Structure formats: structure tokens, C-alpha cells
Amino acid sequence: MNVIETHGLGKSYGSTKALDRCTLAIPEGHVAALVGPNGAGKTTLLNIAVGLAAPTTGAVTVLGGCPTGSLAALDQIAFVAQDTPLYKNFSAADLLHVTRNLNRRFDQGYAEQRLGELGIPLRQKAGKMSGGQQAQLALTLALARRPKLLILDEPMAMLDPLARHDFMATVMTAVADDGVSVVLSSHVLAELERVADYLVLLTRGSVQMAGAVDDLLERHRVLTGPASESDVYAKQWNVVHASRAASQAHLLVRCDGTSDSVPPGWEAHSLTLEELTLSYLREPGAGALPGPARARDTEQSEVTI
Amino acid sequence: MTVDKDDSKSSAPPQVSPIAFRLDLGSGVPTYLQLVHQVEHALRLGYLVLGDQLPKVRDVVAQLAINPNTVLKAYKELETKGLAVGRPGQGTFIIEASLNQVALPELTELRRSLVSWVAAADAVGLDEDGIGALVANVLRDFRERRGGTAVQRGAARLEAEGVA
């Protein structure tokens, strides 16, 4: 099952194309990171997936074929927006009360226990809490709905390092306990490395690269060798990014695993997720990797537009 | 309702696992491999012995804020290496009394000295079967002299902790 699936998705604001022929499929059971430069369309894509915005063109479904904004979709998706919106004059207890009454499912026991562990008093007003506490409260409200899919838009942007760590620990614990799928957008590449096992790289409104992190890392190597030979090899290899000095060259290449042997005099190094992502961000023209099979390609789908 | 951390530390029952993981973010080593290496290291240094439980996935995740799949991958790798075994509903336990797997540099060095030893055996006229027999013989002697104690140490720890 794919938690988010789009086909040729487009969204225009006036003459600006926020999303342009964006096709992707994020399979369930992952913590998927949505990465891309400012204005790449991350927030637009997430807002469409949640049902807060409608696409201009194309199709989108969530959780294995549910139309976005449908009752089934709303019931199973929890969303924490960029600025962790909370009613600032409401106490934590009030917010639990409201959320419980606005949703079909709400685990009051979980929410109260979580806030207890975090040291957030139920009587405290949201507006009086620290940024980290507000983020944790918003996350607790989302998780207490027991969603199948948790969507987080830039969850760590406003948090200090300790609050980021605690926030992600809560998310990861929910993944371990309930198997909730997570899609999160973020700029903090270094911290994605430890949480994300699926990566979607958005550039100019469409998908530049997508896949399981392990696969992506396995398929890329940095080859280091004499600059004089680099042009010859650059033609044979699928070079994503090249940096050449007077005598030495580093080529980031995409390989298919089996047949790519390292020529004599060259060294191969593996990459971190951060290096890989940065290299692709620097080369917006570098091709996309195919994501997983989409429902439409493999089986009859019931998508109605 | 808030938990005083110092208080809970002194009154809480002993931790389930004798080790705790840490992450070196700047090392460039994949997270799951860091966990694997730390278990191997702990086995080598005696922090972990036969029957010990590895930290529960949920606890590792809560402590390090990492993806649970990463921990599962590390534990699977340890199972593949024959060092640990997962018991459904209980956790992952050490099944290897001491660490036989050694890192590549050590292995290369051992191999080099073994090659020169085989050459010496060949020079004095020992054939392949003779070499094999001699190695098996020495290995058995060595195991009887040293291996038994390591297993007993692990077994005693197993009983003391009440692991069925």
C-alpha cells in the first residue's frame, strides 16, 4: 500500500507553478523525508495530501486509494503544520478535550501519559509553553488520534537541538509501538539521516529522486582518481556531480551495483545521505530514480478524478 | 505526576540490558553498523556475555531518536553473524559466549601469519591432510583449556538474572 500516491500532480498559484507534473508513490511502513530547496513545493504537496488544498491538475490518493479529504482519509491521517498551530489561550487539558470531541478516535490515556512524561502540566496554557513544549503538545494531539499516517511539515525548524531530539524520539517511539507511517519535510539534512529510511527529493515542483535510503546509498559512489582520466570515465559512468582539481577528480556516480568495477588508480567511497542529497540539490538537472511500483501500473485502480 | 530523574534512577530495577548504545554522528559510519560494532566491542571486552539481553528496540529508539528499522537491521545483522537471537515477545539475546568474528585488519594479519605457517609446514614436508589434522587438534586443545570457562561465566550470569 502506498500512503501517498500522485500522478502528474500540478498546483498553480496564479502564474506560479508550485507543483508541476509531480508523480510519486511513498510506500507504507516508512519514515519518509521530503527534501528540497525553498519553493520546491514541499508544503504544497503535503497540504494537498492532507486535503487542505486541491490540485490544479493530476490525481492524488492517500492510504491505498482513498481520495484526499474523504472521511476515511481524514480519519487516518494526522497532520502537524509548520508553525504547530494551537489555540494559545487554551490549556493543554482544553486542547485534549476539543481534539477528543472533534475526532472519532482519541486516546485520552495516551495523551495524558505522554504529557506527564514530558512534564507539561495539563492546566498550563499553550501560549505560555516553550516552543519545544508546544511542538510536543501538537505532536501528542496528533498521535493520540492513533493515525496510520503522520504528516509533519518542517517539524524541527523552530526547535533547539534538545527539543528536536526529544520531538523525534516521540515520533520514532510511535513508529516502533504502532507502526505508524511518517512523511516529514525538513531542511535539517544531518538529522534526517538517523530517522528517515525513505527519501523524496523535490525540485521545482516535481520529483528529482525517490527511493529507500539504503538503496539510494548503495547505488551511489564517489570515485576519486586522476583528473586527466576523469573525462574518459565520465562518459562511461552515470555522473551526477563532478568536482575536478588540477590533478584529482571526484565523481559522484550512480551505479547499478553489479558490473561497475573501479578502474586501476581510482578509489571508491560510499556516501552519507546528507552528501548524496546535497549533490543532487546542486545539480537540479540530474535525473530522477524510479520510485516503487505505482498502483496504476500494477493493478486496476479505482481512482476517480 | 512528574518523574524525578535522580530518584527513579536509584529506586528503579536494574536495566534490562547491560549495555547502552551511543551514536557518533560525525563518523560517517551508518547508524546500524555503529550499533553492530558496539555490540561486538562489548562482547570482546566482556560487557556482554552469553544470555545477556540487548537493549529493547523501543528503548533504543526513545533514547537515540532513530528509526526503529535501523535497530532491527542491526539486530538482524547480529543474528546473521550468529552472535544474537531474537525471541518473539521477549527481545534479542546474546548466544555467542565470546566473539569469534574479528575485524578485517586483524583477520588480514592473522591470515598473513597463517600463510607463512602453512609455508613452513609445507617446507618440512607436511601434506594438506596433515596440516588440517594438526590445526583441528590444536583447536580442540585450545577450546578445552579456555572456551569452557567463558561459557560457564555466561551461564552463571544467565541464572543470576533469572532469564528462563
What does it look like?
The complex is a heterodimer of chains A (305) and B (164). Chain A is of the alpha/beta class. Chain A folds into two domains: 221 residues, Rossmann fold (3-Layer(aba) Sandwich); 63 residues. In chain A, 34% of the residues lie in helices and 29% in strands. Chain A is built from eleven helices and 14 strands. In chain A, the strands form three sheets. In chain A, strands 6-7-8-3-9-10 form a six-stranded mixed sheet, sandwiched between helices. In chain A, strands 2-1-4-5 form a four-stranded antiparallel sheet, covered by helices on one side. Chain A has a four-stranded antiparallel sheet with strand order 12-13-11-14. Chain A is elongated and about 70 Å long. With 164 residues, chain B is mainly alpha-helical. Chain B has two domains: 95 residues, Winged helix-like DNA-binding domain superfamily/Winged helix DNA-binding domain (Arc Repressor Mutant, subunit A, Orthogonal Bundle), CATH 1.10.10; 45 residues, no CATH class. Chain B is built from six helices and two strands, in the order ααααββαα. In chain B, helix 2 crosses helix 4. Chain B is elongated, with a radius of gyration of 20 Å. Chain B starts with a helix and ends with a helix.
How would you concisely characterize the structure shown here?
Chain A has 305 residues and is an alpha/beta fold. Helix content of chain A is 34%, strand content 29%.
Shape of chain A: elongated
> How far apart are the first and last residues' alpha carbons of chain B, in Å?
34 Å
Q: Tell me roughly what share of residues is in helical segments of chain B.
A: 55-70%
Largest sheet of chain A: 6 strands, mixed
Give the radius of gyration of chain B: 20 Å
- The shape of chain B is elongated
Number of strands of chain A: 14
Largest interface: A-B, 21 and 20 residues
- Sequence stretches where pLDDT stays below 50 over 5 or more residues of chain A: 290-305
Assembly context of the chains: heterodimer
The overall pLDDT average of chain B reads 78
Radius of gyration of chain A, whole Å? 21 Å
Q: Strand order, biggest sheet of chain B? A: 1-2
Question: What is the CATH class designation of the largest domain in chain A?
Answer: Alpha Beta
CATH fold-level label of the largest domain in chain A:
Rossmann fold
The CATH architecture of the largest domain in chain B: Orthogonal Bundle
Work out the helix count of chain B: 6
Biggest sheet architecture of chain B: 2 strands, antiparallel
Work out the strand percent of chain B. Answer: under 5%
Topology pattern of chain A, helix = H, strand = E: EEEHEEHEHHHEHEHEEHEHEEEHH
